[in-house]
Input
Amino acid sequence: MPTIAIVGAGPILGLSAAKIFGSKGFKVALVSRTQENVDKLAADLAELGVEAAGFAGDVTDSASLAAAFTRVRERFGAVDVVSFAPVTKTPNVGVDIVGPEAMTVENTQAQLDVQLHGAIRTVREVLPEMVERGSGTMLFTTAYAAVEPLAFVANFGLAGSTVRYYARTLNSALAEKGVHVAHISVNAYINTEPGTEADTIAELYWDAYTKRDQAELIFQAA
Output
């Protein structure tokens, strides 16, 4: 059975991605900062017949994330798919989302460390094995502000745009090595109206994995 690692796993889009991959025969490794949270998600998935486990790991801490992936490999073996979609505004992250006039080096750096640097740390954990075996998929999620600048979330969108750039260049560099990379941008407030359900959006993740023909997919609310 293949394994997907969902980094930044949460109870909305992360859980939906876990459900769709789990229903297709994947084992699911849920990686997030708080063990209690990912254990709850794993229990929810177990009720659906999905083999899943939670692993505490902080994307802003290289040692913490490396330790989490070590435990993932010990439990499930090599990671076939990684989905990166970290939460960027919680009391633990402590990152304010601000407009351009309120941007500082500090609040911009904090967003970059969660999004871009977290993405880089995640890639370093899975890329060597993927390249060695000549297969693998990496999926990076951002809000639509990474594609179309939105002033009221300037530092957040700026960091997301760097993730988008990173994902696109990774795909170009790795395509001939059998590793597919896709950037998925969500232009919707999830679960707020018909057609914006997390389960619906998560179908893009399965499409990206199975079709492997697009470096960027954008979910647009109807």
Remarks:
- The longest strand covers residues 179-187.
